[in-house]
Amino acid sequence: MIKILIVDDEKPICDLIDLNLSAAGYRCISVQDGLIAIDKIEAEIFDLILLDIMLPGADGYDVMEYVR
Q1: pLDDT at residue 11 in the model
Q2: Beta bridge partners of 58
Q3: Measured between alpha carbons, how far is 22 from 37 in angstroms, rounded to an integer?
Q4: Contacts for 13 with CB less than 8 Å, ≥ 6 apart
């Protein structure tokens, strides 16, 4: 199953994306903080990361640099 990490500081947006992708058969994990996203990326392998830019902790650019 394809696993997707959703990173957005607005929980309703995460919930809406999660609802739709889960209905399509994807496994989703949502986080609202850049530092927590980095922790998740270290702990698990994701097929796709949907990443917002303006985040608390580390911003989206920092998270993207970490992924690279």
Answers
A1: 96
A2: none
A3: 19
A4: none
How far apart are the C-alpha atoms of 17 and 5, rounded to whole Å? 10
3-class SS of residue 7: strand
CB-count exposure of residue 57 (10 Å: 0-12, 13-18, 19+): middle
Per DSSP, the residues of 4-48 read EEEE-S-HHHHHHHHHHHHHTT-EEEEES-HHHHHHHHHHS--SE
Q: Is the four-CA dihedral 27, 33, 36, 37 of positive or negative sign?
A: positive
Q: Where are the beta strands (DSSP E) in 1-68?
A: 3-7, 27-31, 48-51
pLDDT in tens, 9-58: 999 999 999 999 999 999 999 999 999 999 999 999 999 999 999 999 99
Residue whose pair of structure tokens reads 């607005």 in the numeric block:
10
Alpha-carbon span 21 to 35, nearest angstrom: 23
